[in-house]
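Reposting from the mailing list since nobody answered there.

I have sequence plus structure tokens for a pair of proteins and want to know whether others read the tokens the same way I do. The first protein:
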Amino acid sequence: MRPTQLSGCLLVATPEIDEGIFFRSVILVLHHGPDGAQGVILGRPLEAQVDAVLPGWGSAAPDCERLFQGGPVEVDSALAVARLGGDGPTPTGLRRVLPGIGLVDLDGDPHALSGMVVGLRIFAGYAGWTAGQLEAEIDAGSWYVVARESGDGFGPVGQDLWRTVLARQRGALALVASYPRDPGMN
């Protein structure tokens, strides 16, 4: 049984997705509604440095030196997702989209976020689904829907987020964390 409202949830790729950009991915759903859904793949750093693409933004928050792969849609654009540290007034250039999460206007001043942002990831592209598409993929067994924790996606670069998220689930779902990359080699 999946929740009807997926905004704020994590989508964790099931072993059914055995190749491509979504293989062993964890996606933060930023928006889900009758018009479709959008999110970003978490934990996939790219080689590109943020300051090389967006000067000044690499020092906007701790651990924000590298760009991350957000998904296959509009990969030539950037989307900044911030982990918020307080409930104070929302600074200019920041739009709260989920509890503890905001989208940052990259045309603004990176220093305006000082003290408000405790984590920042800048993504090249995003993941998107048309109306009903994500629900059909979940029903077909492509995605597990799980609750997110506040630090998801903002941890150390190189952390295997797919295994981490699955291992903390209850019951049989936690066992999927040990699913081999190539089941034929088991």
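The second protein, same order (residues first, tokens after):
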Amino acid sequence: MFIELDVQGDVPLHEQIAQQIIAGIAAGVLKPGKTLPSAKRLASDLRIKSQTVHKAYRSLLADGFLVERYDGRLGMLVPPKEEMPRLTERFMDRMHDRLRALAAEGRARGMTEAEFSRACVAIYRSDLSRMGDSLE
């Protein structure tokens, strides 16, 4: 699994890990049933503390993007598609908060509504094209 961390950035490392795992699931790179590396192994590969990876895994587990393995071996895996989390009010609130902040910054920088909308659609569509889905 390829994860790239920005250690100088504002986003905590555990959030970067979680975001990239979600992106991997959305892109179809991490398929249902795929077992993720142990927290210790991933931490070693990334040269960070295993507690950071544990925190990312716990967050993904709580949000339904990972499930614990119950076949006698330890580990986290990507759940079947029908068990993936759906839209929730919590997610929608979080999305609105982030978009509201970006829209305000865009307006302050002189970005038009049309430019902001085009940027959002382009990002969403680029993710869909990587997943092989079509827009409905």
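Reply #1 (J.P.):
I read it the same way you do. The longest strand covers residues 67-68.
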